[in-house]
């Protein structure tokens, strides 16, 4: 994915309301999510987070160029993982009718520290820094009001916060890894503010000047400019290319120190984790791995014979893959909670049975091979939301990268996530790199480990499943069959570093396996 920051690359997280053109026009556009090449692992082989997201604060006066500096830092970084630019403007407090009347008359002080909901800002930033999801408030400058909806954010490696009071609150300052203050001439700041508020916020020139003299300038002198003492670096508001290059070089060094690469250890665990609890050899017993394997009936063996065959047509492959996924999900349902229920049959006789006792159930497929289990999942558990995670391998390191997360609402909202049961769908667990990342994502959202049920066609006994079980022992893994070996090789068509023959990216293939399941199912 390109790291150039064109207009299409800047995905605004300010508002998605289907509202009037005027209201859309004046929504804040400072909050952005920038995706370059995905997020690499932020956890170790024990499944524990190894470091927080890197947080940079950019402060300065109104119109000093804070947002421009933030975006220039991102552009200077080049090919980087996911970045969030988080504006303090989103955290203006909810206003009463009396305050709204003053705001529309340009008589409400928006430049005082008390105008910002600092505790909410700190709480949201702390969640994002700790690799958890957060729901950011949406503020309308046209209405001078915080809107009811919020914007979901997750997965940032770098968080850049910008705002006039970004360095004012000590709780916020404790969350920053790097503090930047943008210093600019007062006349230039006023000119920029006039141009911005007329064009983007629909204000009159007289109103802007009155507000500037009444609130903005005194606030800058009393509250904003003194916070420059807390900055690690002071950047000029214009002609700041050298300063931005120094900042981006520092951030790149910090990211390199936090890099965590261990997929090869997962692929061949007996070479790296020999003697550690849960780290198995290729001939380990299934009981040690604690897998829920389907009974190997003649029907199941027949299905696998067809799916493994290289001569099976796509039509037959899809049919039997759907059949197998249906059987797997039916088997996996036994791990959901049930409670006794007595009913009366049509002939007037009482029958004692059980009924599902789960408040929220959803599915999450790991794209794209996990999509091969979605149809079977929907056949068995009807009318529940199904989300997806796009996890792919880095062409240079072969490490997993989180490129996209589209999760159900019951997972996005933390108070619902802790009550949810999640069926995690993927076609196979080989090195277990994608499985590691997917489980860690669900845990970051507040899903309980014992409420994750991983459903898959195949598991490699000698692959990363042993390390996965040690890291997440309470996750249930339901599979159709277990293969013995993982073979190391190179994927043709990729040119990557560390491969002098130029054969491509290193991969580990399950044997006997079922080939590229996603390709066989969809192509």
From TrEMBL:
According to the record, the segments passing through the membrane are none
UniProt entry keywords in alphabetical sequence: ATP-binding, Kinase, Nucleotide-binding, Transferase
Q: Does the keyword Transferase apply?
A: yes
Q: In which pathway does it act?
A: Pyrimidine metabolism; UMP biosynthesis via salvage pathway; UMP from uridine: step 1/1; Pyrimidine metabolism; CTP biosynthesis via salvage pathway; CTP from cytidine: step 1/3
Asked if the Swiss-Prot or TrEMBL record annotates the protein with the keyword Transmembrane helix, the reply is: no
Query: Which InterPro entries does the annotation name?
Result: P-loop_NTPase, PRK/URK, PRTase-like, PRTase_dom, Uridine_kinase-like
- Annotated ranges, domain Phosphoribosyltransferase: 295-488
Gene Ontology molecular function: ATP binding; uridine kinase activity
Q: Where is this region: Disordered?
A: 1-31
Family note: Belongs to the uridine kinase family.
Q: Which PANTHER family match?
A: URIDINE KINASE
What protein is this chain from? Uridine kinase
- What organism is this sequence from? Collybia nuda
């Amino acid at each position: 994915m390109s790291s150039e920051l064109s207009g299409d690359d800047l995905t605004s997280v300010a508002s998605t309301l289907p509202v009037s053109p005027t209201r859309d026009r004046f929504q804040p556009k400072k909050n952005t999510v920038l995706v370059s090449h995905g997020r690499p692992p932020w956890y170790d082989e024990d499944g524990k987070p190894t470091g927080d997201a890197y947080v940079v604060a950019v402060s300065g006066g109104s119109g000093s160029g804070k947002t421009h500096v933030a975006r220039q830092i991102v552009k200077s970084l080049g090919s980087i993982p996911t970045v969030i630019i988080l504006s303090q403007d989103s955290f203006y407090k909810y206003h009463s009718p009396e305050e709204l009347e003053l705001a529309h008359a340009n008589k409400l002080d928006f430049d005082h520290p008390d105008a910002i909901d600092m505790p909410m800002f700190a709480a949201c930033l702390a969640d994002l820094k700790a690799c958890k999801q957060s729901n950011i408030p949406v503020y309308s400058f046209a209405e001078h009001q915080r809107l009811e909806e919020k914007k979901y954010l997750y997965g940032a490696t770098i968080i850049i916060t910008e705002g006039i009071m970004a360095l004012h609150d000590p709780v916020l300052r404790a969350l920053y890894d790097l503090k930047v203050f943008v210093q600019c001439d007062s006349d230039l700041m006023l000119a920029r503010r006039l141009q911005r508020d007329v064009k983007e916020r629909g204000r009159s020139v007289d109103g802007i000047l009155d507000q500037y003299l009444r609130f903005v300038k005194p606030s800058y002198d009393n509250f904003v400019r003194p916070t420059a003492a807390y900055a690690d670096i002071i950047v000029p508001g214009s002609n700041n290319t050298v300063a931005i290059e120094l900042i981006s070089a520092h951030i790149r060094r910090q990211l390199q120190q936090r890099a965590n690469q261990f997929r090869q250890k997962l692929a061949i665990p007996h070479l790296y984790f020999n003697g550690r609890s849960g780290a198995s050899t290729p001939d380990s017993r299934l009981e040690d791995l604690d897998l829920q394997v389907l009974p190997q009936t003649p029907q199941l063996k027949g299905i696998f014979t067809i799916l493994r065959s290289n001569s099976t047509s796509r039509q037959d492959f899809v049919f039997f893959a759907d059949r197998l996924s249906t059987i797997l999900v039916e088997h996996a349902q036994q791990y959901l909670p049930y409670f006794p229920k007595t009913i009366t049959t049509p002939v007037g006789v009482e029958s004692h049975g059980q009924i599902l006792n789960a408040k929220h159930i959803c599915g999450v497929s790991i794209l794209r091979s996990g999509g091969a289990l979605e149809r079977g999942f929907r056949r068995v558990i009807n009318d529940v939301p199904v989300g997806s995670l796009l996890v792919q391998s880095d062409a240079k390191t072969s490490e997993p990268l989180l490129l996209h997360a589209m999760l159900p609402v019951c997972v996005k909202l933390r108070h619902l996530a802790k009550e949810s049961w999640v069926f995690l769908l993927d076609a196979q667990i080989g090195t277990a790199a994608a499985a590691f990342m997917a489980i860690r994502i669900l845990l970051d959202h507040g899903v309980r480990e014992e409420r994750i049920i991983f459903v898959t066609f195949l598991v490699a006994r000698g692959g990363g499943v042993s390390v996965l079980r040690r890291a997440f022992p309470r996750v249930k893994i339901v599979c159709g069959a277990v293969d013995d070996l993982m073979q190391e090789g190179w994927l043709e068509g990729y040119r990557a570093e560390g491969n002098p023959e130029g054969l491509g990216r290193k991969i580990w293939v399950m044997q006997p396996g079922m080939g590229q399941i996603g390709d066989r199912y969809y192509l």
